Amino acid sequence: MDNRLAKPEGRVHKRTISDQQKRRDIALKRQSQGRRDLQHHARQLVSLAVPPSSSSVFEEHGAVTGHQEAEAIDIQSSESSVFGHEVDVVAEKVEGWHGDQEEDAIGVVEATRLKGTKAREWFKHQFMIPEWMVDVPSHLRKDWYVMARPSGERCLVVSSNGTTVSRLRNGCIRHCFPSALPNGSRTRESIAASQVFCILDCIYHEPQKTYYIIDMMCWRGYSLYDCNYEFRHFWITSKLEETGVLGPTSKFHRYQFSIVPVFECGKAGFQAAYDGDVPFERDGCLFLNRHAHYVLGVTPLALLWKDPVSSRYHVDTDRIGNVPAYQQIVLELQDDGTVATCDQPGVVLGSMPQDFLLKNKEHLQAGMLLKFTIGDKGLSILDGKPVTADIHYQGLANRFRAGADSVSKVLFQYAARHCPLAFSDILAAIEASDDEMDI
Amino acid sequence: MALEVTQILLNAQSPDGSVRKQAEESLKQFQEQNAAGFLLSLAHELANNDKPAESRRLAGLVLKNSLDAKDAARKAELAQAWTALNESVKGQIKSALMSTLSSNIIDARHTSSQVIAKVSAIELPQGQWPELIGILLANMSGTGAEHPAHLKQATLETLGYVCEEVSANVLAQDQVNAILTAVVQGMNIAETNNDIRLAATQALYNALGFAHSNFENSMERDYLMRVVCEATQCPDKRVRQAAFECLVSISSTYYEKLAPYMQDVFAITSKAVREDEEPVALQAIEFWSSICDEEIEIQEEYGSDFTGDSEVQYFKFVKQALPALVPLLLETLTKQEEDQDQEDAWNLAMAGGTCLGLVARAVGDDIVPLVVPYVQDNIAKPDWRCREAATYAFGSILEGPSVEQLTPLVNHALAFMLNAMKDENNQVKDTTAWTLGRIFEFLHGPNIEVPVITPNNLPQILAVLLEKISDSPNVAEKVCGALYLLAQGYEDSGSSSPLSPFLQSIIQALLVTTDREDAGDSRLRASAYETLNEIVRCSTEDTAPVIAQLLPVIMQKLNSTLDMQLNSSDDREKQNEVQALLCGVLQVIVQKLGSSEATKHVILQCADQMMAMFLRIFASRNATVHEEAMLAIGALAYVTGSDFSKYMQEFYQYLQMGLQNFEEYQVCSITVGVVGDICRALDEKILPYCDGIMAQLLQNLSSNQLHRSVKPPIFSCFGDIALAIGEQFARYLAMAMPMLQGAAQLSAQAVSQDEEMIEYYNQLRIGILEAYSGIFQGFKNKRPDLMAPYALHILQFLESIYVDTYRDEAVTKAAVGVLGDLADTLGPSASSLLKNSTFYKGFLDTCQQSDDQSLKETADWALATINRLLTT
Predict the structure, then answer these.
(1) I want to staple B154 with a disulfide (CB 3.0 to 4.6 A). Which of B109, B282, B421, B552 is the partner?
(2) Interface predicted TM-score (ipTM) over 0.90
(3) What is the CATH number of domain A19-438?
(4) Which B residues, 519 through 538, put their C-beta within 8 Å of a C-beta on chain A?
(5) Residues 649-708 of B with CB under 8 A from A
(6) Cβ(B622)–Cβ(B578) under 8 Å?
(7) Of A55 and B563, the one with more pLDDT
(8) Which parts of chain B register pLDDT below 50?
């Protein structure tokens, strides 16, 4: 008790920082998170994340869902002659999901760890993005399907573990809701199979509160990424009919789901997609090559086309619906100060002045999205690619933007203002390809 | 059987090393050959008034150390050895000790009372030595030569020590009453001998924990309070200080009984703060700090709504005392010492400011109008004491009041504070930088709606901080703290932070600071590095290149420590400190850059070099470096994934070394965690090392020398290993399962009110459950049958968890997971067990009602898994 001037226990004068405990705590947090993720994965509680074109993800499901696998094989054997393409059946590497992590840049093990920002970051790269139709592909009739594209918000819809989540192009969650998709709600039937999940590519049409299904990437836990569009299309119609997904809404099925009618791209089909009766507001036409797999990012095997009849958005508008005097484009700043489209590799449309870059070096860096207008001198195009562009810097792009414009979009929008690709041009091309077929 | 030990004991204190060593040797030999005789000889030596004071003192000390030790295992051993002694030997020793209490030699009395308390700590809980309290109390009654004052003093001291040693339920209420009566008598104002009064007051301090029923009785309580309050007025300042210490202890133990006395206590404490000597005044302030602690805790625990019929006793003493208490505390602030920036310094100004901070937290907004005028009046005065005190007062009230109250004040004061960083006085600058840090801590960050720090003032703030980081070490250390908290407020800024444009110059300034000649003073070097850590952690995507450039700089610095010239133990200490700090920075950078795909390659490129350095550092075998390098390696393994296997051969020996470090159990615990990291990184590639690791882990579990907190993580680590190597874990089942089952039983039996033990058993259960989950999941694909023999036991363990009302949420979650894993892995072979064991329905049902989404999901999954099993 001779603590004459000793500090009483627990009293601190001008507390100073101490970081060591924080470092230990963070390490512990990482370790227990890692452990939890692996456990969850083993229990297949988190199956929201599916890497593209890799069947390794589904190994575990292969072990569990034997009957589905058999079902898939049945269909394959009976239908493969029709479709001429092998169904990507669940792989049978039963020895485990571990050990294959290096196969993909982001494997499922990493992806399942994601939350918040990182989940958004991941999901925004999971979309197949159509090019804009700048010129008409050959063999439209033979190789392509066409559909009227509903106006609305493009979403990935994922059902798993008794709930359904839709995510926008920028990765943000749009809705979280119960649905009749397999394992999409907490009802007796759907929850019974917890290893089951689905991923659909949809457009959410707000006026009707309806999800229009335009593609399907996973069904009951196995992958359709590596299946051709023809097969995916068949699967969409047959599987969705079987379940109650297309039925009326209820407490366990909050939003209506509908299939968009798809036509073979002959004259009649294109006409129907272009101005036939559809229950939704149309926003152009979507062309899909029947051999195309569901690839991530921009692809020329899916094409978007609009004109004033098929879309009221056929020329880009600003936020309040006005068509700006000059075409606006969004480009990505590169390491070398040039600005380019989102294509792989990006098409360079100009470069930022050195002194501007120097002056703003604190704020600007590679990867940032910048907004430009195309000035009076326009674009000069060689071999279908712009070689020079009269672009004028406007500032930073809206922060909700997922990425830069593709070159096809720039060209399509440019053409829309100058000499648009018309309905009649496409129809003529279809007729021409009909002729070819006759020969 | 007693021997003459005087000379040996004197020799054992000889300045001559060889003499001393020989004496210690013979003492040890004596003890080993004849423990009873040894203790008896020591007791006789201590009791014998003809012996020299030095040998008596050492005899008592050795005796004491033969009865008690800090280490719990050793302590239990010693208690057992004492209990096993022959009754008559124990009797002789005890009577020798009791007789020493009347010795004229104060040292002997004092030592003896300590030894008596140690014996009582062993015997009283076992119902032995029932006459002890009676004998002691008898010493207190009567007067004259039979009962001299020094005997009473020693007896009171002994009573105090006994109360300190034994727990409250050991003494019967009538014994407690008798002790309190004797103590209060000794404290009484009528007692003229101040040594007796002091011993009595100190004894009361230790006995307060026994006095619950006495404090329930208003008459006894009034009496106790009166005696304590009177003792605060004793002419002897030692007694006054001890009496205030009693008041501090009463304020936390009997808060709800204090209301009738508060007015008097306020008068006493304020008089002491203003007029008494510093040690007494400090305790008087501590009384109010302690009341604040109580009221802050009540508010935190019960929220802000207290209804009239609330059972919670919340008297708002601080709020009531506020108008007088705040001026009292403000007065103390100008009592600074000229040079007070030393570690562990404590004086009136510090105690007063600290208390003011607690008052602000206890009352919130109400303090603001009482302090602001003081700040305004003093902050610009010519006397530095006034300026420092005003700043300190302002900084102290920044936690507690609402952001709405504080924001306008801080907006007003910020420019002034920045200017005050140029004050001529060192302490004013020190306190100003600290206050800036408090502003950043409490009024800046993502949760603050109207930010105090804006794009307009941020450049100026940083300009001032980066200029003043080169001021004297104490000021620079506070500047580092302010930068740390400023950065912390920008955590989770998304892809770009307002700090991004300045990041390079902040890092530069911090690096320069770490290299200062005087960086060893005031913890400056550590603060600078730790601030660097926070800067790295809070950096955003857009500054990743800057962090990537920092990596080679830190690696270079770490590399140069390896070649430092070590001429003294000071050099060595400095090397260790710097290495630990640099490993800490590397850990943070690895974690930061490794967590994003875009920057991961930076770490991968340097992984070889980093690992080589860590391995060289391990060679130096210092615990803290070991720990920090270990943590960094864990982070590195997480990033490199299976590539880490190339380091394993060399690293493995240090992993073992870490696992064997029982003494620095933190190191051991961290190493266990790193084993988990490596399991996840290497997967089945860890197999070649598993035999050694498992052997060591099993050995650790069986040791009673290893701190128990390491054991739950070891079980979790079993799960990590099983998950990594799958069915290969089968070879360890025969060893691991009995350990798991034993620990499961222990945790299930434990019925304890002790919160610490409840917490520990919950940790233990989590570890066991994580092990089971890992093993089930690991066996699932190839050897699901292996766990079948243990299924019944595991279900029983899960049931024991279900019925335990003290189980915590994390345990529940882990248990539900194991339930599902069991069904999932064992499949049909678990059907009949599950059919017969119906508890799982209730358990899962409860969990499905939970608000915790992830618990619900796990329960849904477990139920679905079981249902699928039972319906097919």
Answers:
(1) B109
(2) no
(3) 3.30.470.30
(4) 523, 527, 529-531, 533-534
(5) 670, 673, 676-677, 680, 683-684
(6) no
(7) B563
(8) none
